[in-house]
Design brief:
Elements: H1 7-22, H2 27-41, E1 47-54, E2 57-63, H3 81-88, E3 92-94, H4 104-112, E4 117-124, E5 129-137, H5 145-184, H6 186-199, H7 203-217, H8 221-233
Antiparallel strand pairs: 1-2, 1-5, 3-4, 4-5
Pfam families: ANTAR, GAF_2
InterPro entries: ANTAR, GAF, GAF-like_dom_sf, GAF_ANTAR, WH-like_DNA-bd_sf
Organism: Micromonospora echinospora
Length: 238
């Protein structure tokens, strides 16, 4: 029953992963969804974690089981299966940690937390961030060659989706910076203030209204702002 990770099951896992990560608001949320989906969808995997490095330095972790989060955190122990996978750029498997001497400190802590098997697969995300997805089993005999294949496919697919999440996050940051610059600009800021007063809405919503008007009229944003400010500042006839 354990060795039943067939093509259909793997395809379903990748579909679920795509649906879950595409809707993530940011990179951290995508990581949290990734580890939960992997834990729930892969038979015999009792928990899942992710170890991330940014520019070669620890950049956070995600864990499906918070009690085991330290196993993915290089700040607690830099010598881990995840770090070996990242450094060697290859999948690392340990079916029975009791007889494995590669990571003595980490293995002792893992066994204390009920982990007796691990697969760590490297994940390439972008030029700044790399990582490893870690599949944990409570039984030393639970992880099979089919789990290794699933881990490899999971890592490749997750890398693409996490890169997209990083791109969306960067785009949102740039958009926010652009919005701040626009709001600080004279006539656009004034127009936003007019809309806020008229509609009783916050500045971001007022800016969206202004952008929508510019798009509908097919004229530059600044020109729409100038027209609005001119209209409200024009003296009314008695």
């Amino acid at each position: 029953m354990i060795d039943n990770l067939g093509v259909l099951e793997t395809a379903a896992l990748l579909r679920e992963l795509t649906a879950g990560l595409i809707g993530a608001a940011g990179f951290d949320e995508a990581l949290d969804r990734l580890v939960r989906i992997a834990r729930d969808a892969v038979p015999a995997v009792d928990s899942c974690g992710f170890t991330a490095l940014r520019a070669g330095e620890p950049a956070g972790v995600a864990a499906s089981d918070p009690d085991r989060a330290e196993l993915d955190d290089l700040r607690h122990c830099p010598d881990t299966p995840a770090m070996t996978a990242i450094r060697r750029r290859e999948m690392i498997t340990a079916g029975g940690l009791s007889g494995d001497t590669r990571w003595p400190v980490w293995s002792e802590r893992a066994r204390a937390l009920g982990v007796h098997g691990v697969i760590s697969a490297p994940v390439d995300i972008d030029e700044q961030v790399i990582g490893a997805i870690n599949l944990y089993a409570d039984s030393p005999d639970a992880l099979t060659p089919r789990h290794q294949l699933t881990a490899m496919l999971l890592a490749e697919h997750a890398g693409l989706l996490l890169a997209a999440a990083r791109d969306r996050e960067r785009a949102a940051t740039r958009a926010g910076q652009l919005d701040d610059a626009l709001l600080a600009e004279g006539v656009v800021g004034q127009a936003v203030g007019v809309i806020m007063t008229q509609r009783g809405c916050p500045a971001p919503e007022a800016l969206r209204v202004l952008r929508s008007a510019a798009s509908s009229l097919d004229i530059p944003l600044r020109e729409v702002a100038e027209r609005l400010v001119l209209t409200v500042s024009r003296p009314r006839d008695n």
